[in-house]
Amino acid sequence: MLNGLSGLVVLRFLEPIAMGWWNASQLLRVPLDLLRAGILSGMNREYPHLVGAGRTEEARQVLETGLAYTLAIIAVSQLVLGGMLLAAGRENPMLVWGLVTTTLVWALGVYAHYVRSMLRTSRQFMLVGRVGVIVAILDAALVVLVWRFGFAGLAARAMISATATFVLFYRQRDAATRPRMDWAVLRRLFAFGRHHYLTGFGLLLGAQAERLMLLSVSGGVEWLGLYTPALAAATLLQVVPGSMQGFHYPKIMEEFGRNGDERLLLKATMTLIRRTFFAMILVSAAMAMGFVLLVELFLPRYVGGLPAALITCAAGPFLAARVGVTYFSALRRWPEYYFYTGLQCGLPFGLIWLALRWLPPLPAVALGGGLAIAVSGVALVALVVMHGRKRSCLPPSPS
Length: 399
Fold this sequence. Notes:
- This protein has helices at residues 2-10, 16-25, 29-33, 39-52, 56-88, 93-117, 122-141, 143-149, 151-170, 183-215, 220-226, 228-237, 239-259, 262-298, 306-314, 325-331, 334-356, 361-391.
- By secondary structure, the chain is an all-alpha fold.
- It folds into two domains: 1-193, no CATH class; 227-399, no CATH class.
- α10 runs antiparallel to α18 (361-391) and α15 packs parallel to α18.
- It starts with a helix and ends in an 8-residue tail after the last helix.
């Protein structure tokens, strides 16, 4: 949350057009995330499950293969960056800085994802929280770089922050693990992780729909800059469901690996959804009031994007439904996964396109994106409840 707030302070020192180019460069994450291919998602599910089942040798092989794959895609990402820089040319320094920063931050983040996937104990999960606090404080301090150097300072701030996260997680790695590619394990991780990965990629693609649709409008880069408060609101709102799922998912999987009881799994999932939903109501309301004061008093250049930010806050509680993917991930119910992914990919583009026919660009994009979050969230919870009712009369399945 502190990281998001310091990101808003950054806007005071940058023109909307500069933030427009920064936001446009973030679209590079879409092709880069294709490299993940679900391997780390599979590791995130399979490693705690194997540990909970007492299969330590298989768990070790998962760590070794996951590390080898992580290092390989980091190397490939640098080749992607080279191609993008050749295509972009040197005419727009802000775009070049944005592309370089996006790639380096992504590469460091992939390794941090690998390390987080091997954490299991409550102490280790608390460490993840402490790393987040340290980096957030660092981000706040590095705002001075943006004040002093403008767009170049913004890029430097992002790279320093990502490097700090990498260093802190690197110290928590299993030093005994060496990269060793086991193709059979890799295929198994892909088989387990591709479904969860597709859902995550669908979320990413759906989130980028707002950027893409604004860029398709005349003067799109400047519109995208004014839309930055709404993008910041969306990022802040995802902190709560992301933290809840990141903290509880490995625990739920480890417990399910021990007992295989689907009824307990359903109960744990619905409890997680309810708690996240009520937390999101409070967070969304507080954020809406905070954005009104912040933009009008301190960010007058972005006041045109305030209505879009408020619409984004209104859709915040429906983000709680996303933690429900835990249920289908544990049961390996992929049809529901694909249905949810389709909603996440298709609804934002379709609803934004319709809204653009009747409303100005900024509120149209925010309204279309908010409606997509609400509809897909309700659909996911309904799927969890319907499937759980069908299975509630069954005995515990074998682990």
